[in-house]
Amino acid sequence: MFYRENGQLKTSYQADQQIFPIAQDRWAIIGLVLFAIVAVPLLANEYTFSAILIPFLILSLAALGVNILVGYCGQISMGSGAFMAVGAYAAYNTLVRIDGMPLLLALLSGGFFATVVGMFFGIPSLRVKGLYLAVATLAAQFLSDWAFLRVPWFTNNSTSGSVMVSELQMFSWRIDTAVEKYLFCLGFLIVFAVLAKNLVRSAIGREWMAVRDMDVAAAVIGIRITYAKLSAFAVSSFIIGVAGALWGFVHLGAWEPAAFGLDRSFQLLFIVIIGGMGSIMGSFFGAAFIVILPIVLSQTLPALGNLVGFEVSTAAISHAEFMIFGALIVWFLIVEPHGLAKLWSTGKQKLRLWPFPH
Amino acid sequence: MSYINPVNCADRPAGAFLAPQEAGQTKKIGDVILDVRNISLRFGGVKALTDISFDVREHEVRSIIGPNGAGKSSMLNCINGVYAQQEGSITFRGRTFKHMNSRAVAEMGIARTFQNLALFKGMSVIENIMTGRNLFMKSNLLLQALRLGPAGREEVRHREFVEHIVDFLEIQQHRSTPVGQLPYGLQKRVDLGRALAMEPKMLLLDEPMAGMNVEEKQDMCRFILDINDEFGTTVVLIEHDMGVVMDISDRVVVLDYGKKIGDGTPDEVRNNEDVINAYLGNSH
């Protein structure tokens, strides 16, 4: 009823090619962004920021990167955790080794080094596909686990093996409260989301999807498969690297290689599968789901247990979490392989007609 | 018909391509544009093609026919650079190649449709056809990410071109439908549209009418003849429908078991003893 596009006629291709061609969508997203920037800092408390919102923002950013590679270009990668680690450690090293290195530049250098490593581990994708590629990228994960644990140079010879970034300062802005950290991450996420969306709706995005959908036809119409695949690895690892640097610098503050283990790679892959492969929006849905579900479960399960007179231990909750995750992933793969984003767009289609049946 | 409003593309002068021929001019078959010499292709011990030679003249409709498994699609795959033949060479517009490279082939202006639909399933009709324009899009990754200056203008310009193809193929109402949801006949049209978006000098059509009903076949024939007549695009056609082949071809090549058994005008081929045997069998 209120979601109608009647009368919104496009008179130029430019107007037709907007990210949100429907006016209501445009207003909704502007409202949402304003809400996130203005209202959320006023409403949320310290705990919400550090336990929910900041992890959500950074994981969304990382998932955006994974989605470009896995969802848009169809190259399954299990090395996302490794690329995050490279981003975090490279950013750390540029920050501590170069005097007067600005924070922003250090974070971006994390992305740059992740790009280099990502492209290197993307080389097998030129010969192998699917599961074989997944196994090949797993090598990145093992290598990074080993390197950041065993090579003291990367951790600046720290004796404990963990590294720490004590204070964050961008220009004259000291980022130390939770609100400031939240806004800092939000800024990154908004910028990268817009850039990623622009890429996937441009020529390069079509090349990625063409390679994903039918690589022989893509080659015949003149798409360079090598370029398409490696550029997907490059762009994806850059974003993942920046997300990794933020995860270390802003969310954790001090970290060990275990923070970017194989679990992280799987988590990001789950986010993309649950959120929606080949959808920018899906990355946000998936990340929100993965961050919020454990919290919801830890709140509701004990209450549910009490109802039936059964004491639920914290261990049981974390086990239940895994089981529910597993079940949901199986469910999504069977019922809706395009994830929450697809459900969202189906819902929007229905809303266009509502309340009429046809 | 005002089909294509020529877009200035990279190295080609505007309008040189797919621009209608001068009014009143009847189709004129030109010189040899593609010359295939002694191609042999093996997969392990299987001989897919043995010593095939034929040529294609500019502006003509050249058909390749033969029973299933005769090597017709393999022949196109060699021309496209999907397969690399062991022996023989291919000459296109004066340049001779031992092996073709897919990218170079596309740049030289050879486009192709596929026997079993090879559309990009996750994309809409417009996006599929736009992919055919990617060859002409030169702006770099950073500009595309920012969608600044040339990158944004390029999208609009090529979109305009694609809209002409959409009009030509009469698929306006399916513009933003995901291709997977279209009926088979329309998917074939989108496949043709994607090839046309490359502004080809030569169009390789691999069974464009397979599995269609009579009306759909007529539509497809009309499109092929329009492309050939009005824009002078050379067409190489693989087709099983003999009525269509004999009607619209200028010359026909016949393959059987990877060997060439006939070559000539439809009438010559029709009366060729070997061809009749291949299709109808020998009387023993």
TrEMBL record, chain A:
The chain crosses the membrane at residues 27-44, 50-69, 76-95, 101-123, 130-149, 181-200, 230-250, 270-296, 308-334. It is found in: Cell membrane. It comes from the Bacteria. The keyword Protease does not apply. GO terms for cellular component: plasma membrane. The keyword S-adenosyl-L-methionine does not apply. It holds the Pfam family BPD_transp_2. Keywords: Cell membrane, Membrane, Transmembrane, Transmembrane helix. It is a multi-pass membrane protein. PANTHER family: ABC TRANSPORTER PERMEASE PROTEIN (PTHR30482:SF5), HIGH-AFFINITY BRANCHED-CHAIN AMINO ACID TRANSPORT SYSTEM PERMEASE (PTHR30482). This is Branched-chain amino acid ABC transporter permease. It comes from Borborobacter arsenicus. The lineage of its organism: Bacteria, Pseudomonadati, Pseudomonadota, Alphaproteobacteria, Hyphomicrobiales.
From TrEMBL, chain B:
It comes from the Bacteria. SMART domains: AAA. Residues 34-282 form the ABC transporter domain. Signal peptide: none annotated. GO terms for cellular component: plasma membrane. Keywords: ATP-binding, Nucleotide-binding, Transport. This is ABC transporter ATP-binding protein. It comes from Borborobacter arsenicus.
